[in-house]
């Protein structure tokens, strides 16, 4: 998802965000599913999310305490700043003690299994622990546009998204506010939240932290942006040369926890891993290595979205190799590498874009 889509200026299926926190509809939302919608609805939204089962075992509160404890000498991500976030100290991500939210709304531009009929219930968190020079959401991720919310207010956002008819709670850039999210989820659960959490991350995660989410998150949606440390170092504000290792280790842990994506009879995601990879100009993202790694270390049935929408944004104009859009040839070779690697669950829009680009190069 990118900033123009967040603003509703392109794509986004009929919603317009205003002032960063409220939204108006240009056209009516699809009718949310109701319990009396029959067999199709049955068993989908009413399936127990993982965190509800963990709460029933009496373990969710303990995880929240652990997570907030880590925030006191912050080691929530590979930056390992060691600052006391709970006392208001700021680390690399510049995040304050409370979560900061730019927007919360149903989103219709995400992957089809997340969108379904009622939309993906997206909560966009401000700030970021990675901060790429080509960031397509830089006002939010780099400049921190948004407003602080208490855990109770965050819980109310989740419940509002459920009430509207969204299929999941899509937590965008959650890494640096993970403790707040867990706390809010428990508050919302006590008020009736039953939607699966979708952990929509840059991939710059510590595997030890992802292990804390075992039994809480149902759907993981990591990016794997770079396969080469030198490229990751070049295109992030503060050299993240360890990005490939962190992203690969944490994604393998996510796969261990939730496995391949499963959907209900309508094709709406219930649980599992979905991996995103943005094709970049001049092969800097290492797409061939990425698809081979998925096949060898996850599963050839992993849901993979190979994305074609790279645009020159933010500071990317200053980096010659990424200061242009990708070519049709570059996208065609990316999809063909994925097929050669044996990947069988490619996002359908990836495949549609492939057909378009194939037509242009042939
Ligand atoms: S979450 Fe923020 S403060 Fe904590 S280690 Fe990462 S960048 Fe540093």
Give a written overview of the molecule.
The chain has helices at residues 3-6, 50-56, 60-71, 112-115, 138-141, 151-164, 178-190, 207-212, 229-234, 243-258, 287-297, 328-340, 348-361; strands spanning 15-18, 22-25, 99-107, 120-125, 147-149, 169-172, 197-201, 219-222, 262-263, 269-278, 303-307. With 362 residues, the chain is of the alpha/beta class. The protein has a single domain (99-361), classed as TIM Barrel (Alpha-Beta Barrel). Strands 3, 4, 5, 6, 7, 8, 9, 10 and 11 form a nine-stranded mixed β-sheet that branches. A two-stranded antiparallel ribbon has the order 1-2. Helix 8 links the parallel strand 7 (197-201) and strand 8. Helix 3 (60-71) packs antiparallel against helix 7 (178-190). The protein is globular and about 55 Å long. Iron/sulfur cluster binds at residues 74-77, 79-81, 83, 85, 91-93, 95, 129, 176.
Write the layout of secondary structure elements.
Elements: H1 3-6, E1 15-18, E2 22-25, H2 50-56, H3 60-71, E3 99-107, H4 112-115, E4 120-125, H5 138-141, E5 147-149, H6 151-164, E6 169-172, H7 178-190, E7 197-201, H8 207-212, E8 219-222, H9 229-234, H10 243-258, E9 262-263, E10 269-278, H11 287-297, E11 303-307, H12 328-340, H13 348-361
Parallel strand pairs: 4-6, 6-7, 7-8, 8-10, 10-11
Antiparallel strand pairs: 1-2, 3-4, 3-5, 9-10
């Amino acid at each position: 998802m990118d900033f123009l889509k967040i603003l509703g200026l392109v794509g986004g299926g009929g919603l317009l965000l205003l002032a960063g926190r409220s939204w108006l509809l240009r056209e009516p939302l699809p009718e949310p599913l109701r319990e009396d919608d029959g067999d199709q609805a049955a068993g989908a939204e009413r399936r127990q999310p993982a965190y509800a089962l963990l709460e029933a075992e009496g373990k969710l509160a303990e995880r929240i305490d652990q997570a907030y404890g880590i925030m006191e000498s912050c080691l929530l991500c590979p930056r390992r700043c060691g600052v006391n976030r709970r006392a208001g100290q700021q680390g690399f991500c510049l995040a304050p003690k409370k979560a900061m939210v730019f927007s919360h709304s149903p989103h219709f531009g995400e992957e089809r299994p997340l969108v379904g009929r009622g939309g993906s219930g997206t909560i966009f968190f401000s700030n970021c622990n990675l901060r790429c020079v080509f960031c397509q959401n830089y006002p939010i991720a780099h400049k921190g546009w948004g407003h602080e919310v208490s855990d109770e207010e965050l819980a109310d956002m989740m419940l509002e998204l459920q009430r509207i008819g969204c299929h999941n709670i899509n937590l965008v850039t959650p890494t640096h506010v993970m403790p707040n999210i867990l706390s809010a989820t428990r508050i919302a659960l006590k008020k009736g939240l039953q939607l699966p959490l979708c952990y929509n991350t840059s991939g710059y995660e510590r595997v030890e932290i992802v292990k804390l989410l075992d039994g809480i998150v149902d759907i993981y949606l990591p990016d794997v942006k770079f396969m080469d440390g030198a490229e990751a170092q070049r295109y992030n504000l503060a050299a993240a040369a360890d990005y490939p290792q962190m992203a690969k280790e944490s994604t393998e842990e996510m796969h261990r926890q939730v496995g391949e994506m499963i959907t209900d009879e309508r094709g709406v995601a219930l649980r599992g891993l979905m991996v995103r990879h943005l094709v970049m100009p001049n092969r800097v993202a290492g797409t061939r290595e990425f698809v081979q790694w998925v096949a060898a270390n996850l599963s050839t049935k992993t849901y993979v979205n190979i994305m074609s929408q790279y645009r020159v944004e933010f500071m990317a104009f200053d980096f010659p190799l990424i200061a242009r859009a990708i070519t049709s040839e570059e996208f065609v070779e990316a999809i063909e590498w994925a097929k050669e690697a044996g990947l069988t669950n490619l996002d359908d829009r990836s495949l549609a874009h492939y057909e378009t680009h194939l037509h242009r190069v042939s």
